Amino acid sequence: MKKISLLGSTGSIGVNTLDVVERYPENFQICALSAGSNVELFAQQIRKFKPALAALFDISKIDALKELVADLDVEIVSGQEGAVSAASYSDADLVVSGVVGSAGLLPALAALRAGKNLALANKETLVIAGELVLKEAECTNTKIIPIDSEHSAIFQALNGESPERIKKIILTASGGPFRTFSLKEMENVTVKEALNHPNWSMGAKITIDSSTMMNKGLEYIEAKWLFGVDTNVEVIVHAQSIIHSMIEFVDTSIMAQLGIPDMRVPIAYALTYPDRFVSELPSLDLATMGNLTFEAPDLVRFPCLQLAMDAMEMGQTMPAVLNAANEIAVQAFLDELIPYKDISEIIRMAMHNHRPVELKELQDVLDADLWAREEATKLITVTH
Ligand SMILES: NC(=O)c1ccc[n+]([C@@H]2O[C@H](COP(=O)([O-])OP(=O)(O)OC[C@H]3O[C@@H](n4cnc5c(N)ncnc54)[C@H](OP(=O)(O)O)[C@@H]3O)[C@@H](O)[C@H]2O)c1
């Protein structure tokens, strides 16, 4: 029985993870859960999966949660400290992080520090502090198993091969809902249009990131940290989201991982790794797929992808600034405070105004994250 601590249980990754856990009751058990502020769903999950520990980030809702689960034998904790307690819960064999944004960093570090293997969906953790996170995993001899479908694909394609044999990683991208839009058409897209992803059903932030291709930019950085910073990573637009990514090896052979676009597949792989369990999910029916298409990404229409590649190239605190400015700009777009085209502009200006410093310790990341949030907020206020 593998005991799992699930962080971000009320989100899209969280709900899908619980769906996988439920399918294999003899193999998995939930020992700790954490969520942000959705107390109603969180209380239902606590009732159903009976964790020993439940952590709610939003302190203002803790009394409401306690009331909803008053009849249950569960320890309730709150705030950042609570999230860290869930991440380092002593019984856990595996910690799954489905938290969104840089809020995932401290719990991820706490999990690794406590010697837990980490199944990671929260890409922002590696984007902002890749080096520190990898160092922690190395010190504690723990594994980071990617859940992001692209990185799971690369992880699976690499199975048994040495990373030195990689010629390049080919990261596939759906291109999002505006893949065929002109720059002019993209100027005035609405929140509703941007939230309408053609292939995947996900949380709001990553869905907007997919539409701007910032998601692919964050994944580009994530791939560099997971599979080698000097590894060549190429992005290719593959609208059908059937090939989840590929590796070209030094002998020019290419290994690809294919499957239906359903996050329960990479989540199940991360939970069962290094094993594979029989799945009841539908198989990919290639005969009905028709054509699989590929095209180069357009960095003019999707400047966020270029900004992310530049941030990785600049290194130091720049990826943390890119990520935080993006989080603020995306939220401002969702709140209808800025037009769609200004998301990339806010990030570009925040990066331009930042003086990167070397990432020596966690505080350097936290300082850069805070600086970029304040800077992006200021830019939004001044320009709108
Ligand atoms: N969704 C996907 O299919 C997918 C695929 C690949 C990678 N990812 C990555 O996985 C992560 C989660 O994505 P998602 O789509 O599942 O997001 P989501 O649906 O927005 O869910 C985010 C989760 O994080 C929780 N949360 C938010 N702020 C928190 C905080 N300060 N402390 C603790 N928990 C907090 C939320 O809680 P409340 O809802 O209770 O506030 C929720 O449970 C992202 O990094 C994303 O890039 C997602």
Secondary-structure-derived class: alpha/beta
Order of helices and strands: EHEHEHEHEHEHEHEHHHHEEEHHHHHH
CATH topology of the largest domain: Rna Polymerase Sigma Factor, Chain: A
| Total number of strands | 11
CATH class of the largest domain: Mainly Alpha
Write up what this structure looks like:
There is one protein chain. This protein is an alpha/beta fold and 384 residues long. The protein has 2 domains: 2-146, 3-Layer(aba) Sandwich (Rossmann fold); 151-259 and 282-383, Orthogonal Bundle (Rna Polymerase Sigma Factor, Chain: A), CATH 1.10.1740.10. 48% of the residues lie in helices and 15% in strands. It has helices at residues 12-23, 39-49, 62-68, 79-87, 105-113, 123-140, 149-158, 183-187, 191-194, 204-212, 214-227, 264-272, 286-289, 303-314, 318-334, 342-353, 362-383, and strands at residues 2-7, 28-35, 53-56, 75-78, 94-97, 117-120, 144-146, 166-173, 233-237, 243-249, 254-258. The strands form 2 sheets. It has a 7-stranded parallel β-sheet with strand order 4-3-2-1-5-6-7, with helices on both faces. A hairpin with a 4-residue loop joins strand 10 and strand 11 (254-258). Helix 6 (123-140) runs antiparallel to helix 15 (318-334), helix 15 (318-334) runs antiparallel to helix 16 and helix 16 crosses helix 17. The longest helix is centred in the C-terminal third of the chain and has 22 residues, at 362-383. It is globular.
From the structure above, extract its key features.
7-stranded parallel beta sheet, 17 helices, 384 residues, binds NADP nicotinamide-adenine-dinucleotide phosphate, Rna Polymerase Sigma Factor, Chain: A, alpha/beta, 15% strand, 2 domains, 11 strands, Rossmann fold, 4-stranded mixed beta sheet
